Automatic annotation (TrEMBL):
The enzyme's E.C. designation: 4.1.3.44
Gene: LOC100751910
Function recorded in the entry: Probable component of the wybutosine biosynthesis pathway. Wybutosine is a hyper modified guanosine with a tricyclic base found at the 3'-position adjacent to the anticodon of eukaryotic phenylalanine tRNA. Catalyzes the condensation of N-methylguanine with 2 carbon atoms from pyruvate to form the tricyclic 4-demethylwyosine, an intermediate in wybutosine biosynthesis.
Pathway(s) it belongs to: tRNA modification; wybutosine-tRNA(Phe) biosynthesis
Biased composition (Basic and acidic residues): 243-254, 315-342
Organism in which the protein naturally occurs: Cricetulus griseus
Enzyme class: lyase
Residue ranges of the region described as Disordered: 243-299, 311-342
The protein's name: S-adenosyl-L-methionine-dependent tRNA 4-demethylwyosine synthase TYW1
Family in the record: Belongs to the TYW1 family.
Length: 723
């Protein structure tokens, strides 16, 4: 019997041992299969988590990812007057409500070369609030930042991706009255950031200080609207969404999702690249209603030149269709053309509220009247204004008014703080002069009545004050802009009211066409083109030529003419020779030289008390100016108003000055002029009157009428206030 005969192959244990290789293989396959099943299950769990929390690949990190889409907000501002800074503070408070850290940064203290690139990795959203100042230039605080940004955007070494990943939004502060550079700075900042690859998260906002043209009625309302959209956009970014909403969603369904390739059409697939299409540049469109631009930018391909027509045609067609729809619906985006045949009112509700708070009595749709402080002073026997000293006006019978609240300048020393509208031409409804004069007198009388019972009020002057004898058309704005100014002047004279008309020397043709005025003023706030531009901040591009032409037109007038010089210390007091040349151009009868009046802090002017000259400084300036004018001498002085009068020597007869006005004689002469149809003319020498001794320069009274009692304010060593 052989060895194998002792084995029993029918035994199960023996069979397992003999087939152990197959058993091991089966176990290995089973384990492998189990592992694969577990992996698949795990992936399904991860995918379900990603669907429930957008952008989170793992549930353990989902909360962290959600919180770091926006790490904070940095608000940069460039401000000249403080408005942008105030908006920055307001925006910061709104951002804080989202539990986001926020920082407010003055661009003057920010070095973009060192810090701007760091805003990308920090995942901050940057908001830029920038104002446009004179001639479209940035404010002083933002000057360096804008210069650096412009150079970087145009320097090939930086490239188009230098700021890629930086998220930003821009809000501009400007004035549409300066049409040629309205919000130019914010437009440029938006453009330069885009050129460097930064991502714009919200349409550029445009604040308009011109309440008449502002989309929402005021620059504050413009900012509030933009701020609301910015906060909403931040909330969207916090949730992880990357696409900005256009704001044109209908029935709750957002229509700003990226169009797929099927919707684009074969001619656009694989060709569109956002930064190679000039029309797609976001800085070129600030309209909040514009669609399509960001959709094209979301694609990562190039556009062939021959396909540009295919791209632009649908966009143009869409704009035409939208314009037609708006036209049918009665929508007109040009407010100047949308007015009815009579034009729109100059005084908007916001403007009415602002001016009423300042004490204006508004008349019709574009006029106003206000009680001068010198009228109040003379009613109480405390002295009259410098016009009383220089020309014999009875200040308590003088009405200060204007038929046009609008002006063509935005002077740094504007005593109305630029609450009035601005413009270069009349584009408003025209009220009739009869209405203006009637309501002006009524309102003036009502304000006089309210003065009854005030301590020190002189009864006889109160009665006299109820009858207006003089009208100073110098309250605010540019009276000569009013289309019916000649009719208004004629009505004043028919009522026995003398006329003192002030113009800012920007309307030479209107000066030439002006009927006789008791006294016509031209404001000569500077003697050179650069200083006039800096001080008056005119709206006209050809402001200097208009200024010179206005002075020439003044020289042709036969009635009394006056240059009015306002001295602003450190700004226009060093230009004596240039002033002398301007005097020879207009040959005025008189030159009033007055130190600027500081009217308090203004959001539109950098003027401070340091710019107000002392009376002694004004006297010194006048003396030096007269030395350059052989035909003129110093005639009168009104120390209390910080003002002096230079008179032409033709008004000094036999050693005596005749600067005062014979108002009764003027009314006779102007009546003869009107009755003769303008053929019977008259000149300034025909209605002059002798100046009293107390009003002359060098007199002991220093221009204060001895009939009145001078009132000195307490704690005032020198009072340089004036009207």
């Amino acid at each position: 019997m052989g060895p194998l005969d002792v084995w029993d192959f029918s035994s199960p244990l023996l069979l397992l041992w003999m087939n152990r290789f197959y058993i091991y293989l089966g176990c290995a396959l089973g384990v492998t299969l189990w592992i694969c099943v577990q992996v698949v299950i795990k992936k399904q769990v991860i995918r379900s988590q990603e669907k429930s929390v957008p952008g989170a690949p793992d549930s353990s990190f989902s909360l962290q990812k959600k919180q770091t889409h926006v790490s904070g907000v940095k608000i940069f501002y460039g401000s000249q007057t403080g408005t942008a800074k105030g908006f920055a503070v307001t925006l910061a408070k709104a951002v804080t409500s989202l539990d986001l850290p926020v920082a407010i940064i003055n661009l003057k203290d920010y070095d973009p070369d060192d810090n701007l690139i760091g805003e990308i990795t920090s995942k901050n959203v940057c908001a830029f609030l920038v104002a446009t100042y004179t001639d479209g230039h940035p404010t002083e605080s933002a000057e360096w930042f804008c210069k650096w940004l412009e150079e970087a955007a145009n320097d090939f070494r930086f490239g188009k991706t230098y700021l890629k990943g930086l998220r930003y939004a821009v809000f501009g502060l400007g004035d549409s009255a300066y049409q040629s550079h309205f919000n130019k700075v914010s437009t440029n900042v938006d453009k330069w950031l885009w050129m460097l690859g930064a991502q714009r998260v919200l349409t550029r906002g445009e604040g308009d200080r011109n309440a008449v043209q502002s989309k929402h009625g005021s620059i504050e309302a413009d900012f509030t609207t933009w701020k609301t959209k910015f906060i909403s956009r931040l909330q969207t970014l916090q949730s992880g969404e990357k696409k900005a909403c256009s704001g044109d969603c209908k029935k709750g369904k957002c229509e700003t999702t990226q169009p797929d390739s099927g919707e684009m059409g074969p001619h656009l697939q694989g060709k569109l690249h956002p930064r190679d299409v000039e029309e797609e540049e976001p800085c070129e469109s600030s309209s909040e209603e514009e669609l399509g631009t960001q959709d094209y930018q979301s694609l990562n391909s190039l556009v062939d030149v021959e396909d540009l027509g295919n791209i632009m045609s649908p966009m143009k067609k869409e704009k035409r269709e939208k314009a037609q729809q708006e036209e049918k619906a009665g929508v007109n985006r040009n407010p100047e053309k949308s007015a009815d045949s009579e034009g729109r009112a100059m005084i908007t509700p916001a403007l009415r509220e602002a001016l009423t708070k300042q004490g204006y009595q508004l008349i019709g749709s574009h006029s106003g009247v206000k009680l001068c402080r010198w009228t109040k002073s003379m009613l109480r026997g405390r002295g009259g204004c410098y016009k009383h000293t220089f020309y014999g006006i009875e200040s308590h019978r003088c009405m200060e008014a204007t038929p046009s609240l609008a002006c063509a300048n935005k002077c740094v020393f504007c005593w109305r703080h630029h609450t009035n509208p601005v413009g270069t031409e009349w584009r408003w409804k025209v009220d009739q002069p009869e209405l203006i004069l009637k309501e002006a007198i009524e309102n003036h009388q009502n304000m006089i009545k309210q003065f009854k019972g005030v301590p020190g009020l002189k009864a006889e002057r109160f009665e006299e004050g109820m009858e207006v004898k003089h009208c100073a058309l110098s309250l605010v704005g540019e009276p000569i802009m009013y289309p019916e100014i000649n009719r208004l002047l004629k009505l004043l004279h028919q009522h026995g009211i003398s006329s003192f008309l002030v113009t800012n020397a920007q309307f030479p043709e209107e000066i030439r066409n002006l009927r006789p005025v008791t006294q016509l003023y031209v404001s000569v706030d500077a003697s050179t083109k650069d200083s006039l531009k800096k001080i008056d901040r005119p709206l006209f591009k050809d402001f200097w030529q208009r200024f010179l032409d206005s002075l020439k037109a003044l020289a042709a007038k036969q009635q009394r003419t006056v240059y009015r010089l306002t001295l602003v210390k450190c700004w226009n007091v060093e230009e004596l020779q240039a002033y002398a040349e301007l005097v020879s151009l207009g040959n005025p009868d008189f030159i009033e030289v007055k130190g600027v009046t500081y009217c308090g802090e203004s959001a539109a002017s950098s003027l401070t008390m340091a710019n107000v000259p002392w009376h002694e400084e004004v006297v010194r300036f006048v003396q030096e100016l007269v030395d350059l004018l052989p035909d003129y001498e110093i005639a009168c002085e009104h120390e209390h108003s910080n003002c002096l009068l230079i008179g032409h020597k033709k008004f000094k007869i036999s050693g005596e000055w005749w600067t005062w006005i014979d108002y009764s004689r003027f009314q006779e002469l102007v009546l003869q002029y009107e009755e003769s149809g303008g053929s019977k003319t008259f000149s300034a020498s025909d209605y002059m009157a002798r100046t009293p001794q107390w009003a002359l320069f060098g007199a002991r009274e220093r221009g204060f009428d001895p009939k009145d009692t001078r009132y000195q304010r307490k704690n005032k060593a020198k009072d340089i206030s004036g009207c």
